[in-house]
Amino acid sequence: MFASTPAQLAARDLFKLARIVPVVSVDDPADGVALARALVAGGLPIVEMTLRSPNALAVIRAIAKAVPDAVLGVGTVLDKEQAAAALEAGARFLVSPGVTPALAEVAANCPVPFLPGIATVSEAMRLREMGFTTLKFFPAESSGGIAALKGFHPVLPDIAFCPTGGIDAGKAPAYLALPNVVGLGGSWIAPAGLVKSRDFAAITALARTASAILPA
Fold first, then answer.
1. Is 1 a domain residue?
2. Hey, which bits of the chain come out as E strands?
3. Is 16 a catalytic residue?
4. Alpha helix (H) residue ranges in 56-179
5. Which of 123, 136, 150, 196 is catalytic?
6. pTM of the model
7. Residue 216 lies in a domain
8. Does residue 48 carry a catalytic annotation?
9. Total number of domains constituting the chain
10. pLDDT tens across 27-56, in order?
11. 16, 48, 81, 196: which one is catalytic?
12. Range(s) of the domain holding residue 151
């Protein structure tokens, strides 16, 4: 077994707060703040804000300042520059959909937890050699889902995964029951339609339901 980096050891601690991480994309800072408050109120304090919207960094800054109870992460980090910008904006952890050699170096030296993404055993093995033992499995459903994770476990028993991509409330319990799944990411908790209509009470209700999900 290879030693984990300090950031990787801290990454598993994130999921002690909540095993389900809402993955959201918002372009208006006020909506981002209201959304983060709604998710925290529903019992899901860990939030991954992706860099998929043009105004994402402004949203991240607003949430980091106004909602200190939210453990705000930034996802879709693709390079060193995006990682630096996310940290400057107030990110408390970073997530990537995949990893290049350059991004792996950034992750290894990151001052906050970094969840690098993988889709195959070979990718997981390469990151394991670098000391990463907590990984994002993405896109989970289209990369084999539960069956793939069951296949990973016997050969990579020291790796913990956070599967993300295509998972909904119905599939979550079976994922969380796997011994190598430490938590999971999902967008069903904050659907774009509810964010657009600013129905944050409904999002809080979805978060409460998600926070109560038990493994199958």
1. no
2. 20-24, 46-50, 71-75, 93-95, 114-115, 117-118, 134-137, 160-163, 184-186
3. no
4. 56-66, 80-89, 101-108, 121-129, 145-155, 172-176
5. 136
6. 0.94
7. no
8. yes
9. 1
10. 999 999 999 999 999 999 999 999 999 999
11. 48
12. 6-211
